[in-house]
Amino acid sequence: SITKERTEVILQGTSSLDPNDPAAVWEEYDFKCKPGDLKRRPCFITPYHYRLDWLMWFAAFQTYEQNEWVIHLAGKLLAQEEETLSLMATNPFAGRAPP
Hints:
The mean pLDDT is 87. It is built from three helices and two strands. It has helices at 51-59, 68-78, 82-85, and strands at residues 12-14, 26-28.
């Protein structure tokens, strides 16, 4: 069912040497069709969904222990795997060292 509040999983990375530093800048990986930036037009691909974006929506309703694939996804993003990055709308670390 539809909820009044939207819980979501947001994947971010930082190039900071100390990720715990309050001055560390965290940058978000954007998905192709997952709601995020309110200034971006909605993605219409009816009747289909981008599978990863759809799975991220469901992952927000559970713990990471119930969605171990999210941990694997994060690892692949950290490793800058091209196949995984092709599923994302943006790579905030393109042309730079991986986070």
